[in-house]
Task: structure prediction
Amino acid sequence: MRPSSSPSEPAGPGGAGLFDGVLARGGVRVLVSDRAWLQAMLDVEAALARALARSGLIPAEDAEAIGAACRAELFDVATLGAAAPDTGTPVVPMVRSLAAAVGGRAAGHVHRGATSQDVMDTAAMLVTRRAFDPLLEDVHAAAGAAAGLAAAHRGTVLAGRTLLQHALPTTFGLQAAGWMSGLDSAAARLEDVRATRLAVQLGGAAGTLASLGDQGLGVARFVAEDLGLAEPVLPWHTERTRIAEVAGALGEAAGAVAKPARDVILLAQTEVAEVREGTPGRGGSSTLPHKRNPIAAVGAAAGAGRAPGLVATLLSSMAHEHERAAGPWHTEWVTLSQLLSTVGSAAAWLRDCLEHLEVDAARMRSNLDLTGGLLLAERVATALAPAVGRLAAHDAVERAAAEAAAAGRPFADALAGIPEIREHLSNEEIAALLDPAGYLGSAGAFVDRALEAHRGRREGHP
Amino acid sequence: MRPSSSPSEPAGPGGAGLFDGVLARGGVRVLVSDRAWLQAMLDVEAALARALARSGLIPAEDAEAIGAACRAELFDVATLGAAAPDTGTPVVPMVRSLAAAVGGRAAGHVHRGATSQDVMDTAAMLVTRRAFDPLLEDVHAAAGAAAGLAAAHRGTVLAGRTLLQHALPTTFGLQAAGWMSGLDSAAARLEDVRATRLAVQLGGAAGTLASLGDQGLGVARFVAEDLGLAEPVLPWHTERTRIAEVAGALGEAAGAVAKPARDVILLAQTEVAEVREGTPGRGGSSTLPHKRNPIAAVGAAAGAGRAPGLVATLLSSMAHEHERAAGPWHTEWVTLSQLLSTVGSAAAWLRDCLEHLEVDAARMRSNLDLTGGLLLAERVATALAPAVGRLAAHDAVERAAAEAAAAGRPFADALAGIPEIREHLSNEEIAALLDPAGYLGSAGAFVDRALEAHRGRREGHP
Amino acid sequence: MRPSSSPSEPAGPGGAGLFDGVLARGGVRVLVSDRAWLQAMLDVEAALARALARSGLIPAEDAEAIGAACRAELFDVATLGAAAPDTGTPVVPMVRSLAAAVGGRAAGHVHRGATSQDVMDTAAMLVTRRAFDPLLEDVHAAAGAAAGLAAAHRGTVLAGRTLLQHALPTTFGLQAAGWMSGLDSAAARLEDVRATRLAVQLGGAAGTLASLGDQGLGVARFVAEDLGLAEPVLPWHTERTRIAEVAGALGEAAGAVAKPARDVILLAQTEVAEVREGTPGRGGSSTLPHKRNPIAAVGAAAGAGRAPGLVATLLSSMAHEHERAAGPWHTEWVTLSQLLSTVGSAAAWLRDCLEHLEVDAARMRSNLDLTGGLLLAERVATALAPAVGRLAAHDAVERAAAEAAAAGRPFADALAGIPEIREHLSNEEIAALLDPAGYLGSAGAFVDRALEAHRGRREGHP
Amino acid sequence: MRPSSSPSEPAGPGGAGLFDGVLARGGVRVLVSDRAWLQAMLDVEAALARALARSGLIPAEDAEAIGAACRAELFDVATLGAAAPDTGTPVVPMVRSLAAAVGGRAAGHVHRGATSQDVMDTAAMLVTRRAFDPLLEDVHAAAGAAAGLAAAHRGTVLAGRTLLQHALPTTFGLQAAGWMSGLDSAAARLEDVRATRLAVQLGGAAGTLASLGDQGLGVARFVAEDLGLAEPVLPWHTERTRIAEVAGALGEAAGAVAKPARDVILLAQTEVAEVREGTPGRGGSSTLPHKRNPIAAVGAAAGAGRAPGLVATLLSSMAHEHERAAGPWHTEWVTLSQLLSTVGSAAAWLRDCLEHLEVDAARMRSNLDLTGGLLLAERVATALAPAVGRLAAHDAVERAAAEAAAAGRPFADALAGIPEIREHLSNEEIAALLDPAGYLGSAGAFVDRALEAHRGRREGHP
Result:
């Protein structure tokens, strides 16, 4: 397999724009640019020519001549785009320009056996695979940062919040482990799609490869090998489950990114202040030194928010008519690019956010104490039950809780003020029961298990 | 009100790309480009400066100095975009660059009283209004072309198709009138949104216009007058029903475009061949002269297909937190641009399609005859009923229909072969009953009424 | 116009289910039930019969006989549903059952001139109109509750939060006025759609009303008058902008509901505690007396969250082929019901939430003080600027802010500790500048103006 | 592992409704009914009790007593639903009713260690797994029917249609193989999700299983074993990638169903008439014997059309806040049910459609002949090129094509009338070149390969 050229140069037209810093952050943008698409299309033409030569259908030197001309910088994106409306795709003008650039006998072999959709669909797979690289790198790095937080804060107590209300103590390590776990799952799914579902499309005008005679299957296999894509059992020009799986995996990744972003935004609130983003020079305000806008988390949330609608568009476009769709296929092109770009951006922001997250464990603890131990009421009742009975224990603790809440009195004092409780529990016992660090159940075990799974996963996917 | 500058120059970065010819056709693309956004943002700053001057808060010459610098070509989009991540919006670097460009005392008055979201939101309204111009022009032109078809083919019989099966005769004029009616409704809704819901946003850092003291309302009114936007009762930085109505109207327009596009694609099928697109030099094939790809209709369908997902994204983003959203607001920016662009493209394609549509009335008639008059079976039964009773009439006609279908015999002959029918209906009467042109009910009246409404609507909206 | 029967009885099959209390709250559910649909379909048949009689096409007593049988309780929903697959709609079995119930001569006039889609589409409009009643009642009540909060808390200072960080002071009244304004806009749009876009569909098998001869338009008008629906210029069986506008208005309403729901959830957080839901017996916990789950706001958010996807489904289904769609039409039925139901539920929950909202103005003030006046830093700098120059003023205040933040010292003290400041501002002046109530800009004026608009709107729409 | 009861009885409230025959066809509906959800919730409680007993936390006889009461028919769905609003879920009233039904000491052990979300989430997994059974059966059967068509029509020539225009010949076997391949891919994905991603959720109030002390992990493992679900590394109450993968797989399945449904609708058109649905007693019309509505394909298309919006809703709801979401979680419940139901319905309709599809091979051939061999023009030019050169060959054939099209003359005659062609190709050679069956490229090989893959797949998944 020959290495396909990949676009490392500046994106040129379609390059960094006004909103790209915020909404198209990270390495994906340049890999879904018009230039990158054009290069991918040319890579397909070059691979096809080599496959034709390998099959003995065209001379090897013609394939080389074609391959040599398949460099995006030789073509003008705007010109090709402007000529696209005549046929409905940019492939026809691209092929015409390519043949002109190749010249001579070899020009007649350009695009042989293929149809426009073959080039676009296979290019879409190349673009997707290339875009997955930085996307996965960012998802993995974000998961790694979350793993670091989980390990570092395995024992950092945090108010567990349900419906945004304090419920029971948990640990920040367990919360971060959940972020990691979601990101790992999303990465695994992206990797699985990359490994199994990104395939060459080569079918010719109607999916039969008629103009290649009995050599069609061989040519298709050679193209697949050349580009490092799977060889499909059938041409899939109007069978779009591959696109659906790419879309679904990206939608999942967006959600896996959105969850920690949302949590960080909430934890960073002025009143909560348990975390803040620490990227130097960002999100601050000289006159409002208390303020540190969680820009990265906001960017991650914004990017993730664009994904579900784009996924729906791709899923809505799966009923491709007959041997080439009259609309749904064209709908896919930019939608796929935008979906890759926005999920890539979200992941890049989240990585930035988590890699620079400052955690205030003391504040986590003091916030937990806001309710003066009330979160442990159930635990006290459970401890008291053997002595006074389950119902009486519950009633006694409830009275103490009500009094503590009403009088703004420490819960420990209120508990000690109830005779049935004082009789059976010493002040020291009450204090121990009200220690949130003692009521964390399997939090630590969960974190350990999750970190082990995380490390195992990463070893398997170097 | 001073005229705001509008971007007529080439779009520069973010300009015509590889897919824009197909997926960003028409006049909208350039009006939602990065350059156009930047100009709109600068228009807001200029209008704000003039409003501050008009309110006596800054000297008139400073407002003029600011206004003079508010030209997009003085700024570099990529530089501004690259600086956006520090604050999460491109406004802060834009304001900084603008102040530098203004210089002197006036520099200190740039952006006074406003917050970033004020500039972005008001610019979004300007971009929307400007993009609505070519969009509405194309929707109106498409409706006009449909009106022309409806008038010209008021009496052209066509097989009415339900679930894509021939059902009863109708007219192509009535079908085209339906296209027109949908486009007119969509245009009316877009116009209504433009007239009533595109409003200035000016609230300052938290929506109170605190730094403008008691002059806030006056300044806001002056900005609104200057830009020709509505003055809202309240700042709407986190009240997004305006965005929802823009989105909804665009989604409706996409659907109104998709319907005729779908019909044209179906009518143009090789086996149906009742219409074909007639734009010279497009969609044809030299070796397949029978083939005329309905490129314009396909382009319209493709563009429309991208809209619903984008509408959903905007609707999903309406729960803006407190005084500025942490994610949903940023999600809106490019989504709105993409929605405007794709609906504009769809409308431009449909206009092209309908303005060049070639209609084959003879083929419509011959297709109708494919079923040999069977579509009129019900009519014959109705005519026969008074003589032989409803049930017997139905049975007799049903027998004839079955025989015609089974034997591939003309329905007229089969009818005449049934004694109960021949007894009461002459061959001439049968022929008249089987004439589809005689069984069109209110089709003509509907077309007349719809055309009248269309003309009335256009008079009201010059 | 005869009053159409409306379903007031229990919903029967399809009635209150396991999740309906949470996700189908309020009055809409019963009005979109299967029973309600069936009654609406029967109402159409009854109105059609009366219109045929009024047109002289059938005897008046036959219309009466038909009308008398058009009561949903005479039919079995499950039986009709089970027979629907043969023809793809429940209308055919319903018509058959209705004719059997009517009997005699009149049975032959049942459904005359209509096609299944006429009945379904007109019934959809009736269902929509009926469902809008409780929906609008709940939206108006929620807006009214928000108006009450806006008036009562016109001067209640609140930390304005951007990206969930304290930014500048605002008032809770202004925030509530924003909620009200969004709800009012959504209600106005729903009312507009109800008044102008809910129309009769009557076209017969192919949209020409062929079987009604030259009486088609008259019959359609009479049906419209009878049912209190608009008379459309054209049959709209495959022109779905009406459905799109219903969907868009519902999507907007969902967003208008989601915004205050989101704010309440955030304001009710344990650490913020500025509001809490006060519906007796809900959301509390005996052992966690500090906890009051914002169940109503959560229910509102959950219901609203289902809307955008359903709106997208309806918009995606607008390209109805030819004279009856092969799929998109069927897709609409339950999607419309579910959209009405979930938005109705969200509105009912929000009404409940806002009508029982307990506001803790003292806590709002103390939260505002968490940053010790830092939010007013800009104000102090502005006041100081005339004396020392803009730049020097900014620097001095910035130094004070940094010191206050670093040392945890009151901002007032830090300010007074800076010589340039102390020289020009007395302690009293500093204290006055740091009073948030004095830096609310146009907040009060905005609230007044919004309340006036709210009242004016309600007068127009009794 | 004990067998969990599964709901085989009638669905009761929420049962077959007016639209269910069309939009909730197949076996899924009853498995996502309220009754089925309730039974799944009870299955979770029973499994939890057994796991607690197995862990030694409660007596075995108490677990048995609880298990004995966990039968849905003992509870009233409407009553539970009506009580749900107080806490926001139906679990609390269900637990209360269950405890009452159990009575005695065992009542105190009901739901021990669990929180409401544990029960709902695990029940959702059970409901999903149970619903996947009939769904997969229908998808497999549809794929099997497509395989049968592919095998039977391996050599049946068909006009390959691009943008709905005749392009090149293909075979109906290849088209059907494409349907099969898409369905197989979707089934494989559903099976993969079922095998790897349906997991128990057990975390207690904040995800730590605090009230189970150090036995939490053991109890969770026992519950997983009991229910036959995966044991997750972490509680996933706010980590929703599992839901995303279920949603994505269902969205893919919907698209895989929509494609053949769309093709069948198009192939069944009156003018095309290459296939028709053959289910007895459905879709026909006595007076329109030519008409056979493709009801099953329409039903499949309608059901599939509802999926993308619902998928988007689930993906939009992935950012669950902290330890329990305030809205997004509740949004999932009915959305998941509706998605399962509509995809199940679509698959059931498609199975019906394909299992009864009547294929008219002669009509396929005669439609192909509509263009008189023009589809083979390219093939003639290729054959001629060696003799006269590529360009001259192309020109000559183009002239013949133009003439044939213009004069309505057979293409063979037109070709023979061009001197350069006649000189090199005999009439027999021309006729052979124009035989579509001779220009099918790899169509047969593709079908063979796809069928082999299909069979291999089915062997692996019995």
